[in-house]
Write a sequence for this structure.
């Protein structure tokens, strides 16, 4: 597979230390640096910013996001590009 990603968690491993975009249930979006995750996809992010309509809503700093609230996670460098 592309980029050495063979299993779903491989994408998270390659994203550690990098910025990711996380979409949560309830139409909430967060961007932050992925520090850690577990098999339940619970995430620890740093420098977290809550986004709304592409704009900064508030800064949260170090944040834990519970895996069962996550709809998707994407590397922020690809997710935030505008066409």
């Amino acid at each position: 597979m592309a980029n050495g990603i063979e299993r779903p968690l491989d994408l998270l491993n390659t994203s550690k230390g990098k910025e990711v975009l996380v979409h949560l249930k309830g139409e909430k979006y967060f961007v932050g640096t992925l520090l850690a995750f577990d098999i339940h996809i619970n995430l620890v992010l740093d420098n977290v910013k809550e986004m709304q309509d592409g704009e900064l809503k508030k800064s949260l700093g170090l944040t834990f996001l519970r895996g069962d609230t996550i709809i998707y996670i994407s590397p922020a460098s690809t997710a935030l590009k505008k066409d």
Notes: The CA atoms of residues 16 and 45 lie 10 Å apart. The longest helix spans residues 8-15.
